Structure formats: structure tokens, C-alpha cells
Amino acid sequence: MAENGTSTPGGAQGAPRTGEPALRLTGISKSFGAVQALTDVDFEVWPGEVVGLVGDNGAGKSTLIKIIAGVNPADSGHIYVEGKEVQISAPTDATRLGIETVYQDLALADNLDVVANLYLGREDVAPRIPSLGGVLDETDMERRTLDVLSQLQVTTLKSVRVPVAALSGGQRQSIAVAKTILRNPKVVLLDEPTAALGVAQTRQVLRLIRRLRERGLAVVVISHNLADVFEVVDRVVVLRLGRRVGSYDIGNTTQETVVAAITGAEFGAMTAE
Amino acid sequence: MSIQSAGDQEERSVAAPGATAAVVEQEPAATGGGASWLRNLLRGDLGQVPVVIGLIIIAIYFQIAGNGFFLTPQNLSNLALQIVTTAILAVASVLVLLIAEIDLSLSAVAYLCGAVMGVFSARHGWPAPAAILGGIAAGLIMGLVNGFFVAIVRMPSFIVTLAAFISYQGLLSRILEPQTTLPIRDNAINSIAVYYLPDFLGVGLPVIALVLYAASVLVTRARRQRAGLPVQSTGQLALQLGLPTLISVIVLVGVESYRGVPLTAMIMMAIVVIFWLITTKTAFGRHIYAVGGNAEAARRAGINVVGLRVAIFALASTLAAIGGILEVSREISAPANVNQSLLLNAIATAVIGGVSLFGGRGSVWGVIPGVLIVGSLINGLALVGQPISVQEMVEGVVLLVAVLIDALGRRRSVTGYR
Q1: What is the ipTM of this complex?
Q2: pLDDT tens, B379-399?
Q3: In chain B, is it the N or the C terminus that has fewer CB atoms within a 10 Å radius of its CB?
Q4: From CA B303, how far away is CA B377, in angstroms rounded?
Q5: pTM confidence score
């Protein structure tokens, strides 16, 4: 099931969990009015590890991601990046700390080509004309786009000068991921990366996630699709009703156990940690 | 100067298989070849081809129906003078349409700013440069007001600029009271519209522009080759350099055989070229297209979307002010009534030139073929003695056909994409 075969409890297959986690959250709580969305949740991901964040609708996955991405800061709790406590109160804080989020809607401008999308908001400019944001250095941006795409082994694009509207769902997902890679992040959050993708395109995206792990990034994948999750992640963290109910190494668990934890059908599973 | 922004084509051309390690052909249906190259041209800025064909048909028809007068240098020179204000307002429309907004106040702003200049000049005795700057500053302020309500208060631009249109119409009659037409007596202002550039400027400036253009195309090509990126074929390069040169030579020979290049036409071309450069070659321009394509993506990418929207409305009204001032110079007076067809002509010009009403698609260059269609129809129908009523009906049909071609083209390209 998991590509790297068996593993020992507590150890990820991709990389040994040594040193500080790239990202650690402790005691995170968040409420929206009377609704307690998250209660005392811990979360951690090491460099070179892919963690699946799973749970039913309303379990608090999106809330947790928004806290990490700085969209909706937590009410209480602590966040550590590489062991140092940090404050994330806005999206710019998260990106400054090396945390990049690929949202489900991908945030691509369909009318712009691949290069323009990759560099959107941080274009390479040659001579500076302050009020106009500078003259674009297209050659340099195109060369570096090809570099990044080849590092990620995104090989199905016929040209980086086609508008992204012309690309398939998998290709668009790849572009959205490549966009984060350009910023040299430490942690990449992927929100439902395989939703609405066909079989081949899903495989393409899962390959891409493995490539991120090979680059030593900490990757968090939020997904409803347990089959996809089991194919690519090293560990799953299960949320239910705003609480963390378990963390399972993929090597020694089954989809059934995880489903039971998600639904709360098997209460024994809640103590799997 | 070319009708197309051919400079972009080479960058959009399909990468040759094996040209780079990362880009590998997988979809043979879209592999480069003559057909796909042509398709790319049609999809890009050369989407102007149907417009150019339409223009040729219009020219031939009026040449015959107008007993050979339509294509005389004298009439073409007239045409060039007639289209200037429409073209400048169309550039303003393009900017606003690119960010998926609309500005219905452009014609009112134009006439009001013309009148402001007129009042400064004729009633307060300001020297021409000060009066002109006053008119332009008035346009800038009106644009900032539009931008404030659209971008910061987030009201629909349709309503904001419609309200502005109505109020500025009133304000226009108000500031000219008790006159209904304010005659301009300043010679400097009045001569702008009738001034023809001396040959060394009329021919020299386009030649310099062409040389700079060719140099930038060649430098880009050399840089791309050095970076190992695919470059256009020699044939494409020849077309890219030859077509603008050919068109410029034809136009220049034509106008030089009459009275030379009108100053206002040169101003119009300069505005088109400057805004084409801004929209395609700068980060600001890239952000304009991004906001029009996906404002949320632009915001998340850290682009100041609100500021950009304000800037676009400010630029649009400033351009409208310039257009209005040239119009007042042409009429040697500031009228108290807004020419009702100017606004729709400007928007029609932008749309016929291939700018999408939904934002993010189209080129400033489209203004030139667009305004030539609109201008030729008005000029030609007047030439063959048709009344305004017929001109308006024909123009309406042409606008509808232009949008129809755009809609069909978009549907085809979407199905071709997937």
C-alpha cells in the first residue's frame, strides 16, 4: 500500500524524524462564536515528511489550515517553525516564515501564461521604473520556469507560453505547486490537491508530492480521498469534531482503522497515539 | 508601426520538441506546424485578422461607392484627424475593460475637461500650456473620484461611472453658462489640431520607433538563444519585422503625399505605443491583466488590487481629458453638450479591436484597427451622403458582428483547448 514498504512505529518512511519539526502547533483552539471549531489540537510535520490531514466535513481541517496559512489566526495555542515560536496573524506572516499554501481553487489567472502565473506578484524586472513596477525580464523568467518545472519533472506541458486556461487539471495543480516552490518554502500545504482530477492526472499530482518530499520539504496534504492519501503520505493525522483523535504511520495502519477514527466508529482507535 | 504586437508572438510560440529538457511534447494534436502557428497567431494579438479583412472590404466598398474619393490622401488625412479623440478614449476603455470594469463617464469627462481648459484659457486668460495642464488635472481628479467609489467603496463601476456621466453633463453646461458654446481664441490651442509635423519629425519619429522595435526583437532573440530557449523561425522573424515596416511605409507615403503627419495623429500613435509598452512589458501591465483575469489570485499574489483599480480609472480619465482637449482644439470651441456617440464609439472601438468585456483579454493595439473600422464607416457613409441615422444603424450592426466573432472565437478556442 505505502510505496516504501514497512516502517517502524514512530518513524516516517521518507526521512527519519530527527531534530525539530519544520512546523509544530500545540494546544491550538479556535471558535467561531458559539461553535468550537478546534479544541486543543497539536500538529507537527518534519522536513521530508508528507502528512495527510484527514477528517469528516466540519472536523476542523480547513480551520487548522487557515490558522497555519494566517488567514484566520487561532484563539490560543503556540506555533513553532523549526523550533522557534512564531506569530502567524496574516498570510504574509506565513509566507515570510516559509509556509506556502496551495488552495483548492489554485488561484491562477486563466488568461495569463504559465510563466506569468508562476511569477505573479514577484516578477523579474530589469531596469526599475518605480511607479510601473519595472520592465519585465521575460527571458530570465521563462528560463527559470523551465528549470523549476524540470526539477519537479512536470513534463506534459507543450509550452510555458500557453494561457493556463488551456491546461488540464493536473497541469494546473502542478503549476500552482511550482509557484510555491519558486519561493523556497519550508512547508507546503496542499488543500484537496486531487479533488476533481482524473486517474492519470491524480497520479501526476501524487508524483509531484513525492518530489516535494525528496526536496526535503515538509508537506501537508488535506484530502477526502483516503486512497490517494495512503498512496503518498507517510503519516495521517485524523481530526474529528475539532479534536485530534490520532496519528497513524501509513506503514502499520489500514484504511479501515483511519476511517474508523474519522467517523468515531471504533473508539479504541482514538488512543492510537 | 504595426497593427499587431508582433513582439509578443515569438514568446508565445510553441516550444519545439526537445528544445528544452523540461518541455516535452505529449499531445501530438497540438504539435507545432504551419496550422498551429497560424492558430496561435489568430488566438494572440493577430486575432485582428478578421478586423483587418473587414477593414479592407469597407475600404473597397467606399472607394467604389464614393467615386474614388475615399482612399485619396486628403480623405485619409481627414479620417486620421476624425478618429483621434475616439482612439484615445478607446485606449482608456481598453485599460478599464482589461480589469473587468467599465467606464461610461469617459466622453463626459473628455468634454468637461475640454471645457475646463476652455474656461481657463478664454475666460481667465491662462496661457495655453497652463490651461491644458488644468484640463488634464481635472481629468485626473475625476478619475480618482471614479476609482475611489469603484475600488475602495466597491460600488459597481457601471453605476458609478453612469452617475459621473450624468453629473458631468450637468456640470459641463453649468460651467459654460450663459454660453452654450465657448469659443477658444488662443491660437496655440486652436492650432494643435491643424498642425502637421515637419517631415523630419513626421517620418523621423516612426523610423526611430521602428528601429528601436527591431533592435528589441533582435536583442530578445539573441538573449533567448543564449538562454537555450526556443526562438521564432526566420520566416516568423521576417514577418515580425517586415509587416510593421511595410504598414508604416504605406501609411507614411500616403500621408506625406498630402500634408504630412498631423500632430494629433502622432499624439494618438504615441499614446497607443506607450500604453502597449506599459501593458505588455511592465510588471504593472502584467498586474492589470492578472486583476482582469482573476482578481482574487492577484490579491493573494500580493498585488495591490485596490490601488491598481484606482490607478486605472485615474489613467482612463486623464486620457479622456487629453482626448477632450484635442477635440476642443479641433472644433476651436468647447460645446456645452457631450457628443452622444463618442462614448459608444470608443467602447465599440475597443471591442471591435478584440478586447474582452469580461476582463484580462485583448491588446491596446486593437484600438488602431478598431478605430479605423468605426472611423471609416462614419467617414465613408458621410461621404456617400448617408445621414447620421444610417451611420448609427450600420455601426450598431458592426459592433454586434464584432462581439459575435469574439464570442464564436472564444467558444472555438475553449473547445480546442481541452
Answers
A1: 0.80
A2: 999 888 888 888 888 888 877
A3: C
A4: 41
A5: 0.84
